[in-house]
Amino acid sequence: MDRRPVTPPLLDGHLVVDRAGFRLDVRLHVAAGEVVALLGPNGAGKTTALRALAGLHPLDAGRLRLDSTVLDQPDARRFVRPERRPVGVVFQDYLLFPHLTARDNVAFGPRRQGLPRRAARARADRWLDRVGLAGYAGRRPRELSGGQAQRVALARALAVHPTLLLLDEPLAALDARTRLDTRAELHRHLTDHAGAAVLVTHDPLDALALADRLVIVEDGRVVQEGDPATVTARPRTDYVARLVGLNLLRGRADGHLVHLADGFAVPTADRLDGDAFVVFPPTAVTLHPDRPGSDAPHTWPATVAGVHRHGDHLRVQLAGPVSTVADVTPAVAAGLRLLPGQQVWASVAAGDTRAYPVGP
Ligand SMILES: Nc1ncnc2c1ncn2[C@@H]1O[C@H](COP(=O)(O)OP(=O)(O)OP(=O)(O)O)[C@@H](O)[C@H]1O
């Protein structure tokens, strides 16, 4: 039996925020040293959650505890103002003070924490050095590139030794090359950060590269969470499936078949019974011009809804009783004369699908 004491998470939040026609209601736990990425479609509530953690948007209900301090609990009339929270933020709309040098931007937080000017500046210089900007301390934000400004913002957030680090799309404003370098650098700083970190991103690559755990938010609720490997292997919503590039269908498993609506079925190597999800990559879908014979018993009719170039392949959107996407080579597409509106038949091999229960 495991007798290790269960340590409470460093951050323990039940965040409830009401906005016109929208309610955020998410439970969020983050351990010391853990990086959690909030992912979700536009308007899901990610930024609202981050702003609630920072204290920029008070909770309407629920409770937020960080370490041993309750930061926000409306029913106990408890609210710690943003500047009094041990929180470092890197927000798009909250970057740098334009009139201060990079050094003074970074020294600002430590000064507020009571560090004398000279010590605060020395700390700022150490952090600028750590983010690779030793020679830029005297520059003002307008004399920095986007990537450099982003790194100063990170240094500023980390210089206060925050218990909680919040990052809102930290790499979004950067070009592809800078993004790659900054992502690697951010990864190093997050690994060194002893506190909790919560990151909001639209980019699955950022989330997979930086986070220990993904929390998927849709319409103000957590719809799935887990380590990146599990979430990407076993998506539970269409949004997550699209994010990781898989077709996701839901049906009723009966041994090695998952029965879908309208009497169609998908074969699977996994043996399962009951409500099930089944996933497969677009490259696993085979298209046939006519209904195949007994060599492909589990096929379904589909209408080509769209064809786009996708790397070396063509990505075909298929509508019908089973809505999927298929990746085919240009040669196959030409052979099938794939055009929008065309009727085809689709199938997938058991060895290319994975099925898992809908229930926990
Ligand atoms: N200032 C505001 N006043 C009222 N409602 C708002 C305000 N800002 C956002 N909302 C609403 O709150 C909901 C959540 O928005 P939020 O910005 O948190 O989503 P998000 O997941 O961060 O989206 P995105 O990916 O587009 O940034 C949306 O329905 C949005 O319309």
TrEMBL record:
Residues 8-244 form the ABC transporter domain. It holds the Pfam family ABC_tran. One of its GO terms (molecular function) is ATP binding. Coiled coil: none annotated. Keywords: ATP-binding, Nucleotide-binding, Transport. This is ABC transporter ATP-binding protein. It comes from Micromonospora humidisoli.
